[in-house]
UniProtKB/TrEMBL annotation:
Provenance organism: Actinopolyspora xinjiangensis
Name recorded for this polypeptide: Glycerate kinase
Alphabetical GO biological process terms: organic acid phosphorylation
Presence of keyword Membrane: no
GO-annotated molecular function: glycerate kinase activity
Length: 374
């Protein structure tokens, strides 16, 4: 075979990190062809795993940061930094994965810790900050993030609001005059594959609120609160980005970043692939292996495996996918740019055993890929 194999998967959520998936596939490939040149490039879509993907390149350093978690408890988070760029991952500070199911608090969960991560990035003296959003526990429109950066949110009596999206029902004024002035000199990139608006049936509360523990009445309250937040913040800034793509990302953190912090919205998959130098490693490849825990219709709507396949197709390199499970038809897979898919469920139909034994199953999948394609 001429050329190397590029293994560029996302994480298998709840089972393996992207790097662990890449390592396991590589073991299987080399089990069949010991001399095979396998290049592992873990990727992400802007959500959890984005900082790890940046660190895996060796071009960023890990900076630990202790911040306020989504429900007020202090948590250990991290950002990735080099001389010019910082990669910030909302999930590490304000993510749902930081909470046990009984701790979900949809009305009071806050993005305050994400603002603290942005402050740490500013302290590092970078010129660009990539804010990867996804997996949030909060639906506060980014109000907590803005407060951590110096904004003051008040009720009709001039009193500061408590954290959480539910409090935005009482919001009457926002003072942005004390926002960290260093923000004006930084290019802030909002990296997300969520293009929902802030409010309404397709907005942050209705679509993602139930995942964060919100019942029907809480969803209604949060949507109304976000409508009020958009009106008040729109008056403060002179514009509103409530309907712009990405405004509904991470419980509306996208809206706060777009409106108050002048962030630029970009596809999270594209941003991460650029950060990790995917196109450089793609040059000269004979085969690309990508994947994620579940291949489904969402995958084809711009998630990272589909973006990987599209980039590979442009230069004539075939792509195969690995997954825990796959609900896509062969027709849909082919249309998405995948030459084949290898699902662990075909090897181990019991979901619990598949999750626990994912690494060893991926060894076998790597062997099958080598047999079929190499």
């Amino acid at each position: 075979m001429t050329g190397h194999v590029l293994v560029a998967p996302d994480k298998f959520k709840g089972s393996l990190s992207a790097a662990e998936v890449a390592d396991a596939v590589a073991v299987g490939l080399r089990g069949r062809i010991p001399s095979l040149d396998v290049r592992r490039v873990p990727v992400a879509d802007g959500g959890d795993g984005t900082v790890r993907a940046a660190l895996a390149t060796g071009r960023f350093e890990r900076l630990p940061v202790r911040v306020t978690g989504p429900t007020g408890r202090r948590v250990e988070a991290e950002i990735a930094v080099n001389r010019t760029t910082a990669v910030v991952e909302l999930a590490s500070a304000s993510g749902l994965a930081l909470l046990a199911p009984g701790e979900f608090d949809p009305l009071r969960a806050s993005s305050h810790g994400t603002g603290e991560l942005l402050t740490a990035a500013l302290d590092a003296g970078v010129r660009e900050i990539v804010l990867g959003v996804g997996g949030s526990a909060c639906t506060d429109g980014g109000a907590g993030m803005l407060a951590a950066l110096g904004a003051r949110l008040t009720d009709s009596g001039g009193r500061s609001l408590s954290p959480g999206g539910g409090e935005l029902e009482r919001l009457a004024g926002i003072d942005l005059s004390e926002l960290d002035p260093r923000l004006a000199d930084v290019d802030l990139v909002l990296a997300s594959d969520v293009d929902n608006p802030l409010t309404g049936p397709s907005g942050a509360a209705h679509v993602y609120g139930p995942q964060k523990g919100a019942g029907p009445e809480e969803v209604r309250r949060l949507d109304a609160a976000l409508c009020n937040f958009a009106e008040v913040l729109g008056r403060a800034t002179g514009e509103s980005a409530a309907d712009r793509p990405g405004a509904g990302a991470a419980g509306g953190v996208g809206y706060g970043a777009l409106t108050a912090l002048s962030a630029r919205f970009r596809s999270g998959s594209d941003v991460v692939l650029e950060l990790v130098g995917f196109d450089r490693d793609l040059a000269g490849a004979a085969l690309v292996v990508t994947g994620e825990g579940a291949l489904d219709e969402q995958t084809l709507r711009g998630k990272v495996p589909a973006t990987v396949a599209a980039r590979a197709a442009k230069v004539g390199v075939p792509t195969v996918a690995v997954a825990g499970k796959c609900s896509l038809s062969e027709h849909r897979l082919r249309g998405g740019g995948f030459s084949a898919v290898y699902a662990l469920a075909h090897l181990q139909p019991d979901p619990g055993r598949s999750i626990r034994g994912a690494a060893s199953l991926l060894h076998r999948v790597g062997e099958h890929i080598a047999d079929d394609f190499l």
